[in-house]
Amino acid sequence: MEAFRFRLMIALLSIIFLTLAALGFLIGQLFNNLYMDETVDRLQKEARMVASIVQESEEDLQSLSEEIGEQLDLRVTFITGDGEVVAESSDVEGGEMENHLSREEVQLAGSAEGATIRESETIGSSMLYYAHPVDEGHTNEGYVRLSIPIDAVQTATGQMWMIIAVGFLAALIVIVVLGYRVTQRLTRPIGQVTTMANELAKGNYQARTHDETNDELGQLTRSINTLAYNLQKTSSNYQRQQENLEVLIDNMGSGLLFIDGRGRITLANRMCDAIFQTDTSEWLEYLYYERIHDHSFVQFIQRVFLTEAHAHEALQFDESWSVKHYEAYGTPVINSKGQLHGVVVVLHDITGLKRLEQIRKDFVANVSHELKTPVTSLKGFAETLLSEPMENPDVQRQFLEIIWRESDRLQDLVRDLLELSRIETYNFQLDLQRINLSEIGAETERLLRKKAADKSIQFNVSSEKHTEMIGDATRIKQILINLLTNAIAYTPEGGEVALLIYEEEASIVCRVSDTGIGIEKQDLPRIFERFYRVDKARSRDLGGTGLGLAIVKHLLEAHDGTIEAESAPNIGTTFTIRLPKEWNG
């Protein structure tokens, strides 16, 4: 904007300067001509007056010339009719001067054109000459010549030019100041509009300009403001829709990929990071087969590109310690010209469904197996007792004890199944009250101390600080009994089992640790599943039903508690339970 204002000022000043210069030159020439004409007119009048004085005066011509020259501040010369100089007001003697009859001013004496400017040979400077004839009736007929140094005329002309120059310079300064203010007034709206246009080009649609005038510039600024308002409104709507779409895409529960017609990935939502275990934003503008390393998934995308038809397929992605199952849906994007614009791929995580399906299958198989074993034993030993008479009371008693143990095991299994089913129902209620976990821990120790002592296991229960909370005492005792029973069962003779209860900022922590056989890392995520056993043969021999940890997990969830397991084979296992002090349900 400054450049435009500068160019406008330069153009205006150039025009004004040239106009003033031409006008000054014309005025100077006019004044110069007027001054010269006035000087010549003066010489004419004074020459006629001197001629008249000479005719009437009887005084010596030399004295008369000196007197008149001094009074008029002029050079006065008397010339005879034949051109001889008889008197001169300057210091030069007339006899020393050459004949003046051929001089131009003498030849044109008395006429208006008789004024002549030339270099004086006598004085040596430029002079303005004018000669006037003495009346013919005079006895000494001749000419009177007046002259004035041209330097005086030039000095006066120079002063005139100085005055003109100063006046024009002052006028130029005033014009520059006024012109700057006028151009600034005219260009300011243009500058504001330009600045606003630049802001609009940068995407700042909130920019506005202000000009209340009713001229064309005012109409322009109002039109630009209207345009900016419409752009802001359109941009705001578009941005809101874009943000909603981005939030929807990023937070959808499925992975979303968009691959353009050239095979380059142009969109990958946040769920893709979790699916592919990497930052998929770095995949953008890369070919899909350069970044996706699963061969079956690449083939699925290629099939959608080749067939240009909707497709879906179940895929499996192997992770470090597990397998993820996904349902892939691929849809081609066709533009208005019927050309393939790209492919949209959606990945639905069905790992949970697969896991639930597998758990259901395992549950049915495990229940069938767990029931089949004791039922088969009961049936077999009962048939043996019924079919063959037992004369040996010891063998008969041994069979009956086996039947009793299998019946007891079957009863435990049915009890745990009913207990787990009751806990999982929606109407399951806790008997909440203020309890002290230290007291429950001590009671649990009394119940299980004999079982630990039978295996020569060192059994320690301790507590720190305040351990009061809101909870169901019976259910929490059930949790501790299940965990401690497992710890004692899976700890060899001479081992250690410990229960530590202590307080944290907002929860009570129960830490159950043992020095038992431990659990492999790959088995830890599944230990809370129904009937899942790390060592199936040994667990069954120890009388476990495989439902204890599942019951513990559900009871903790009912208390808004959490449980964590840490274990190492042949070193031991530690379960950490955190129960909130206050009930938030």
TrEMBL record:
Q: How does it sit in the membrane?
A: Multi-pass membrane protein
Identify the residues that the record assigns to the HAMP domain, covering every copy: 184-236
> A GO term (biological process) for this protein?
cellular response to phosphate starvation
Q: Catalytic activity annotated for this protein?
A: ATP + protein L-histidine = ADP + protein N-phospho-L-histidine
Ranges for domain Histidine kinase: 366-583
Tell me if Transmembrane is a UniProt keyword of this record. yes
User: Which is a Gene Ontology cellular component entry for this protein?
Assistant: plasma membrane
Q: Return the SMART domains for the record.
A: HAMP, HATPase_c, HisKA, PAS
Q: What is its EC number?
A: 2.7.13.3
Q: Where are the transmembrane segments?
A: 160-180
Tell me a Gene Ontology molecular-function term this record carries: phosphoprotein phosphatase activity
User: Where does the protein end up?
Assistant: Cell membrane
Top-rank taxon: Bacteria
Instruction: Kindly give the PROSITE patterns that the UniProt entry links to this protein.
Output: HAMP, HIS_KIN
Keyword annotations from UniProtKB, A to Z: ATP-binding, Cell membrane, Kinase, Membrane, Nucleotide-binding, Phosphoprotein, Transferase, Transmembrane, Transmembrane helix, Two-component regulatory system
What InterPro entries does this protein map onto?
A: BphY/WalK/GraS-like, HAMP_dom, HATPase_C_sf, HATPase_dom, His_kinase_dom, HisK_dim/P_dom, HisK_dim/P_sf, PAS
Listed CDD domains = HAMP (cd06225), HATPase (cd00075), HisKA (cd00082), PAS (cd00130)
Q: What NCBIfam families does the database record attribute to this sequence?
A: PnpS
Q: Which PANTHER family does the record cross-reference, listed alphabetically?
A: PHOSPHATE REGULON SENSOR PROTEIN PHOR
Q: What is the recorded name of this protein?
A: histidine kinase
Species annotation: Salicibibacter halophilus
